From TrEMBL:
This is DUF58 domain-containing protein. Keywords: Membrane, Transmembrane, Transmembrane helix. It comes from the Bacteria. Residues 246-418 form the DUF58 domain. InterPro entries: DUF58 (IPR002881). It comes from Georgenia daeguensis. Pfam families: DUF58 (PF01882). The chain crosses the membrane at residues 54-75, 81-103. Residues 1-25 are annotated as: Disordered. Residues 8-25 have a biased composition (Low complexity).
Length: 435
């Protein structure tokens, strides 16, 4: 009985609260329909928003200074402690003065410009910020800040006359492969002590792609990729270039392939059969498993090598598939390939060269050549296992980056291993494979 009574009491309380909330909501809605009340509510809402915005300008040091000043003021006045009272007055005065630094409009038109949206590692990249005063009067000095990657760029903006402009140029470091987020540009007003800070954002974020460095493979080295271009296979097709034999016509066959002379001699429609020719399909598989590399420098050389091989295949208009130990990278154009390689980061897990070889065998049909790119910590046994996983008929090449080994060629199982110490050695090492 007591349980039922408690449940009824709780239900009654919940119903009462809901009814009260509904009544207040309906009362507010009815009041908002009155013109005078509606304007007052709008002004109150605007004042609350403005107050919240101002409160966000105050930093942690500002709140500490204000709280300390108020406490010192009250305690000093209550105890008759003149020194403490003076300290409180000074702190409150300093806070109010700092707040005055942020007042006023910021009538700016700001634009952010990059000299190039894509550069190669080591190339110069510049950015410029142009600030224009759009008001009809002089504006006070301010500060311009903007993030550039993990760093912060800041410069003082002088006072600008009506219609005046100020341009600031700065260099962006491009020592390593990366996608650098530049911006947004913010104008900041605040006091010298950093108690209060008011900022406004003016631009969107711009991305600068710092592409990996690549090398052009010489013609002899490029010929290393011409392994099966145009070679015939034993697969029979109804339309190709290499003639195989004649057979009887089957409904649905292309009548353009009817051999009329043989049809007249045999009294039956005879059509031509062809041997399917194979177009070179190059697969570049790059391991981005951190365990496959001794250090970050090896990884960067491997990424550059994969990019160089992929660009060579694209230039020769070959079918190209680029994958890593963790995903497949779209590579329909030069820009798309380099952009995706630029975004690559190291991964972890069991993925490695054997996993990539399985992905080639499972997902890439009609592959004629698989190029596995990895670091020095990949053992010959792993390369042998990767070659054993690849389909029969797929030519296997491994580009192994080892900065402590001599460049050269070796064979591990069915895999030809090209060891390189630096990116510049890749064309010469592939040339040796053609001898």
């Amino acid at each position: 009985m007591s349980t039922e009574r408690s449940a009824r009491t709780a239900g009654s309380s919940a119903t009462a609260r809901t009814a009260g909330t509904t009544a207040r909501t309906s009362l507010t809605q009815r009041l908002s329909t009155i013109p005078g009340v509606q304007g007052a509510l709008a002004r109150t809402r605007a004042q609350r928003l403005a107050t919240a915005r101002v409160l966000r300008w105050v930093g942690a040091i500002g709140w500490v200074a204000l709280a300390s000043g108020v406490v010192a003021w009250v305690v000093g006045r209550g105890l008759g402690w003149v020194e403490l009272f003076v300290v409180g007055v000074v702190l409150v005065t300093v806070f109010l003065a700092a707040l005055a630094f942020t007042l006023g409009r910021q009538p700016y038109a700001v634009s952010l410009r990059l000299s190039e949206s894509r550069v190669v590692v080591g190339e110069r990249a510049m950015a410029g910020v142009v600030v224009r005063n759009t008001s009809a009067h002089h504006v006070l000095p301010a500060r311009i800040e903007m993030p550039v990657g993990q760093a912060e760029v800041a410069f003082a903006l002088p006072g600008l006359p009506r219609g005046g402009e100020h341009e600031e140029l700065f260099a962006i470091p491009t020592a390593r492969r990366a996608v650098i987020a530049v911006g947004p540009v913010r104008s900041v007003r605040g006091d010298p002590l950093g108690l209060v800070r008011r900022s406004m954002t003016w631009t969107d974020v711009e991305e600068l792609y710092v592409h990996p460095r690549t090398v052009r493979l010489a013609s002899t080295a490029a010929g290393f990729l011409h392994d099966l271009e145009g070679a015939t296979t034993r697969d029979i097709t109804s339309s190709d270039l290499a003639f195989h034999a004649l057979r009887e016509y089957i409904p649905g066959d292309d009548r353009r392939h009817v051999h009329w002379r043989s049809s007249a001699r045999t009294g039956k429609l005879m059509v031509r059969q062809f041997e399917e020719t194979r177009r070179s399909h190059v697969v570049v598989a790059l391991s981005r498993n951190v365990a496959d590399y001794y250090d970050d420098e090896e990884l960067e050389i491997a990424v550059s090598s994969a990019g160089s091989l992929g660009l060579q295949a694209l230039e020769e208009e070959k079918d190209l598939t680029v994958l890593t130990s963790h995903e497949v990278l779209p590579a329909l154009s030069r820009r798309q390939l380099l952009d995706n390689l630029t975004r690559l980061e190291t991964g972890t897990g069991p993925s490695g060269v054997v996993t990539m070889a399985r992905a080639v065998a499972r997902d890439v049909e009609h592959a004629s050549m698989a190029i596995l790119v990895c670091g020095s910590t990949v053992s010959p046994r792993d390369l042998r296992a990767a070659g054993a996983v690849l389909p029969v008929g797929v030519r296997a090449l491994a580009v192994r980056v080892d900065r402590d080994a001599e460049s050269g060629l070796s064979t591990v199982g069915v895999v030809t291993v090209a060891t390189v110490r630096a990116l510049d050695e890749l064309p010469r090492t592939l040339r040796k494979a053609m001898r």
